[in-house]
Amino acid sequence: MSTITNICCIGAGYVGGPTMAVIAQKCPHIKVNVVDVNPERIAAWNDVNLENLPIYEPGLAEMVGESRGRNLFFSTQIEQAINNAQIIFISVNTPTKTYGKGKGMAADLKFVELCARQIASTSSENKIVVEKSTLPVRTAQAIKNILDNTGTGVKYQVLSNPEFLAEGTAIQDLLEPDRVLIGGEENPEGKNAIEALASIYANWVPREKILQTNVWSSELSKLTANAFLAQRVSSINSISALCEKTGANIDEVAKAIGMDKRIGDKFLKASVGFGGSCFQKDILNLVYICRSLNLQHVADYWEQVKTINDYQKQRFADNIIQTLYNTVSGKKIALLGWAFKKDTNDTRETPAMYVAKELIDDQAEIHVYDPKVTKQQIINDLEYLGVDTQKNLHIHSSPYTASEKAHAVAILTEWDEFKSLKWEQIYSEMLKPAFIFDGRSILDMQKIKQIGFKVYCIGKEPMF
Ligand SMILES: NC(=O)c1ccc[n+]([C@@H]2O[C@H](COP(=O)([O-])OP(=O)(O)OC[C@H]3O[C@@H](n4cnc5c(N)ncnc54)[C@H](O)[C@@H]3O)[C@@H](O)[C@H]2O)c1
């Protein structure tokens, strides 16, 4: 394979955008074209005002500003980008299927298949096709079947190169990844293709961190990594419920077990539940694959991780209703935070929307403040859940107006700014008794209690 000087990425989303911005910065000798079917998204990537990029990630705007127009380009010219590229990354969305066989469980691969068909019908020279999207194990075979049956004589190598970045820390994760995983065919052509891709990463990632495996191990490793991470969150969240009933404190328990080297301290923060576009869909996908292969016990084991997550969100909303004298009808409740975690504007599967729905179903008046999520996004999320957003929903640009005259405040995202709000002022302007439900355990309960609040913190005995 000759030196790589031109690559393209299909899908300008949370993975495609940041990943390609980092490659462009680290490899000024490579022309990087990021293409997408969504013209509004591409226009936002090309906006002269870098504040208007479609994705918020710390450090992303500066990085795009440095390379855009030099060796980083965003466009809707998909065919042209495919034709010019030596390596094509497929980075499109793979949501849970909402129809037909596997509905609600299996990954919907229609966008990936469309990409494969478009590559097959467009390419006139040999290509390396890279699965960057998270895909069920053995998807590479399906992609290869489509690519190998065009009759054009063009030869393809399909690699699996799953992305392990976490939203909110995407740029840091891409600059200093724990590992880069590349799976390919175990023959000389496969090895050459793996080496071509590895040589790109080697511009900034130490060689010993670039792992080479067979395609199936690589595909399955991504699903497994997400399942293990989600499992840790559900494990600590299950214990948070027990703490609240026994006087144990979840932060103390997490610290004590996390200091055990065999366990480690990462992903042991109790919360209102995990969200984001990946954990739930990847677990469901894993469960679906296991069931399809008649591994019923394995499927049931992993499904429980999602069940505990649903329980945690439900439990949080139920607790608010019960504490506010078994009804929130007509009561103003301020929700601080809507994104599924801090430092991102992504709201896919955010626990906030499920909590809001439960409260609105009980006729609460919901007042939302989030520093990065748009009003339209909040409305879209609730409408997706079938909530009538004309009534009972108000969106604020300040946490203070959101909580004025509220019966309760619920913290749903761990934005740093919430730790240093003027809580005395918020207290003085709320109805009494003033309740706080801290779904991220970010507040100092004692201090908040001293102001006069009645406080519930996930995983701790309530101070009512
Ligand atoms: N978001 C994360 O944190 C994360 C992390 C690791 C892996 N992943 C995986 O990466 C993949 C992409 O995730 P994302 O969060 O970037 O999704 P996203 O929805 O933000 O972006 C996907 C983009 O692909 C575009 N697209 C879809 N079909 C297309 C087509 N045929 N041609 C051109 N463009 C097309 C969409 O318009 C969209 O802009 C998923 O498989 C996901 O599981 C996501």
Q: How would you describe what is shown here?
A:
- The chain contains 17 helices and 14 strands.
- The protein is α/β, with parallel strands linked by helices and 464 residues long.
- It folds into two domains: 6-205, 3-Layer(aba) Sandwich (Rossmann fold); 244-464, Rossmann fold.
- It has a six-stranded parallel beta sheet, sandwiched between helices.
- The radius of gyration is 24 Å and the shape is globular.
- The chain starts with 5 loop residues before the first strand and ends in a 7-residue tail after the last strand.
- The relative contact order is 0.09.
- The structure holds nicotinamide-adenine-dinucleotide.
Question: Which features does this protein show?
Answer:
six-stranded parallel beta sheet; 2 domains; binds nicotinamide-adenine-dinucleotide
What is the topological layout?
Layout: E1 6-10, H1 16-26, E2 31-35, H2 39-45, H3 60-67, E3 72-75, H4 78-84, E4 87-90, H5 110-122, E5 127-131, H6 139-148, E6 156-160, H7 170-175, E7 180-184, H8 188-201, E8 210-214, H9 215-246, H10 250-258, H11 279-292, H12 296-323, E9 332-336, H13 351-361, E10 365-369, H14 375-384, E11 393-396, H15 399-403, E12 408-411, H16 423-429, E13 435-438, H17 445-451, E14 454-457
Parallel strand pairs: 1-2, 1-4, 2-3, 4-5, 5-6, 7-8, 9-10, 9-12, 10-11, 12-13, 13-14
Helix pairs in contact: 1-3, 5-6, 9-11, 9-12, 11-12, 12-13
The structure holds nicotinamide-adenine-dinucleotide.
